[in-house]
Design brief:
Elements: H1 4-10, H2 24-37, E1 38-40, H3 51-55, E2 61-65, H4 71-79, E3 84-89, H5 92-105, E4 110-114, H6 117-124, E5 130-136, H7 154-162, E6 164-174, H8 177-188, E7 193-195, H9 211-218, E8 224-230
Parallel strand pairs: 1-4, 2-3, 2-5, 3-4, 5-6
Antiparallel strand pairs: 6-8, 7-8
Helix pairs in contact: 2-5, 4-5
């Protein structure tokens, strides 16, 4: 397993910490379901997490990094009940909202992780354990001096790819053109990954429209998807 020290040296969190105030409904859902459905990275036992035990079944597991308010996560979980959906987020209110969606749709295939997903991948996920990693609209850090804070960089992509099973997918989406170009270059340079398309992927109909995507569309920014597949034998 990759050590935390390498992750710390990068100085890049998987998502950016925001306010933690929850609504009354989110707080109620948190109190009712967090102990069953969620945990923090810091609370995980050392070594690989037993994903089958956590979900109560053996099934393909997809990690979503930066699940936001959880509406897209919930829709994906409803559409694919045969898949285990693990949502990683640092935003407490977003996790509370996701648990409200879990209640509404009576979902049994969603688990929640609070904290830095890079540390989770490095220290608590075995190589080849994941069927997919999804990162939709990560913080673009648009100022040039902040580009080094972007999540999609060579070290992170190498780490994420190592946790994918052969045939597993890395799916990225962004509405920032410069970041999209960076994503394409970084992922194309990772030898264990193969681009499923010749450059940008057509927008999958099954990917829900997030609030970030709706805002981008309203502001005239083009949304680009990238879908990479883990090569066999890598």
């Amino acid at each position: 397993m990759e050590t935390t020290e390498r992750v710390k040296r990068r100085g890049v969190l998987s998502t950016t910490q925001r306010g933690v105030r929850m609504t009354a409904g989110q707080k109620r859902a948190w109190d009712a379901h967090w102990a069953e459905l969620g945990t923090t990275v810091e609370e995980l036992a050392a070594g690989p997490t037993d994903l089958a035990a956590w979900f109560g079944r053996t099934a393909p597991t997809v990690l979503e990094i930066g699940s936001g308010m959880g509406d897209a996560t919930a829709q994906l979980a409803v559409a694919a009940p045969e898949v285990n959906h693990l949502a990683a987020e640092v935003y407490t209110a977003g996790l509370g909202q996701l648990m409200m969606w879990v209640e509404k749709y009576d979902l049994e295939n969603v688990r929640l992780l609070k904290g830095d997903a890079t540390v989770f991948l490095a220290e608590h996920v075995e190589p080849g354990a994941l069927a997919g990693v999804r990162i939709y609209f990560p913080d673009p850090w648009p100022k040039k001096k902040h580009h080094k804070r972007r999540l999609i960089a060579p070290g992170f992509v190498e780490l994420a790819a190592s946790r994918l099973q052969p045939g597993g997918t890395l799916h990225l989406a962004t509405d920032w053109a410069h970041y999209a170009d960076q994503m394409l270059a970084v992922c194309d340079a990772e030898p264990s990954l193969r681009n499923s398309y010749d450059g940008w992927a057509p927008r999958p109909e099954w990917r829900p429209v997030t609030k970030f995507e709706a805002r981008a569309q309203a502001e005239g920014r083009e949304v680009r998807d990238l879908i990479y597949v883990k090569r066999s034998g890598s």
